[in-house]
Amino acid sequence: MNVTKYISKFVMEAKLEQFPAEAIEAAKGAIIDSFACMLAGCKEDLADVLCRHIIAEGGHPCSTVIGRGIKTTSLNAAMVNGCMAHALDYDDITQVSKTHPTAVLLPAVLALSEEYSCSGADLLLSYMVGFEVACSVSESLSNDYYDDLGWHPTGPLGCVGSGVASAKLLKLNSQQIAMTTSLAASQASGLRQNFGSMTKPFHAGSAARSGVLSAKLVSDGFTAAHDAIEGRFGFSRAFSGGRNFNPEIVLDNLGVKSYLTESGIEIKKYPCCGSAHVALDAIFDLLKRADINYEDIGSINVMVDFDPPRSLVHSRPTTGLEGKFSMEYCLSAALLDRHIGFDSFTDEKIMRLEAQDLICKIAMKRIPGNEGRPSWLEGYNELEIIMRNGNVFSSKSYRPTTGALRGVTMDEIRQKFLDCSQDSLPLEKSKEILNMLDNLESVDSLAEMLSILLC
To answer: H-helix or E-strand containing 385?
Structure first.
């Protein structure tokens, strides 16, 4: 059996009861977190631009744009909700694929669930199937895909995941699922060079839209290959730069591993690039133990578990969006403000003299001895602050690597939702939504929840 057909069989036969309870709980936590990020992201300039575009474009208004008071086509709803979910870089990460999975998967299955009146259980299962497939295919790719070729992993892998998730929701047959996978894979894209602009979150929205489009076209008779993952000119080889790829690993792992528990869902504490989070944990740990005046700092060395810059492409940022992808600014803001939040990433905060002064004192490098090796291998970051008087403060922080939900509890995710929704929804409505999402597999219709989230 070839790989794409194997994926199709897994997708078609998957049932919710086959997944561990821990995986189902993690999936619901990820979905709550993604709705939180959409409700926060719906206030961003990016959302204004996209909503103007889809209103002008028109089309059948069947799916909700979260927090914007409008409905649009399922394709455009998937795109805009995906962009908003990723707009603040506050959304989840999973370890094995190094992607932001839910910002792609949830908008795709949400848009279709509303259009076709699917249940909460249908949405949840489709999300989980897309997650498992995307993670399994990610293991077929070379390390160059993640570290050196310039791909934003969320974009290409997200297309594959959202394609199979959409196909599952539409109850396509095995051949149709294979063609949906192949058609979605042909739309895979996303360049890291665009980090620090609106195009970075567009990668998530575009991938969500591509999955929905692929499933809907195939369901109506559109054709594609049946082997686009493993073929000579297929996904695994193309996105690996033609070397060190192994699509057959999908045959060994998909349906055997539970990626939701083994790769996990890491929920973000800070609204910025995940590559800065471990170092931020280290600096906040240090600030609890030492009274450090930024004016007395001579230099800062941060040793990371990836070859810089990877995703942190803006060493000298000048805008709020660029600051989210700057290790130098993130650490500077932590030292100056003693917190990292939405208000950390404005153009004014980036350009303040104190921040620009500190930025120039920070050097980022790979943990010695591991240069050229895969990212996240060491699993920790180390920070060293050298004061002008010669005193040295150091701290080490580790990347969370165990459990289905990583870095937070479900109660903390619920609180994050309440925090992110407070400008869009009354508290009692936010709590009503949380109750529905906590019991998602028992929700017969998503209409009531989506009428509230229309705002």
So the answer is: strand 380-387
